[in-house]
Amino acid sequence: MRTKAIYAVSVTAGTLLEQGELLEQSDRTDVLTVEATDEEALELRRLLDSYTARDAHSLRRAPIPYKSADHDEATRSFNDKTFQLYLTIYELGTVETRAYIDENELLAKLRNPDYEHPGYDR
Known about the structure:
Blueprint: E1 5-10, E2 15-18, E3 32-36, H1 38-61, H2 73-92, H3 95-103, H4 106-111
Antiparallel strand pairs: 1-2, 1-3
């Protein structure tokens, strides 16, 4: 059986910290706790790095006035990666982390962005 360690994940800061570093993050409100094997933590780190890189790419594209970002492939890809990141956090998450994600309907909101709602003018 593989041993799992406790990690703190901050998507906004782009960090994945081991339990020993958690005390330094105790005052942060954007930290989600997960339990992961070394391999699972490595995969979560890869997803987090990919998310951070795509976030920077999306930010550079945002001011282009003639391109509708909500129908852009880069935005769709970013949304998919964001969903995958939070799904992985949910799957590895502690009871409290899963409850937070459920209560805030994060996965549902990420899977169905606003422009998919009725009344959106395509």
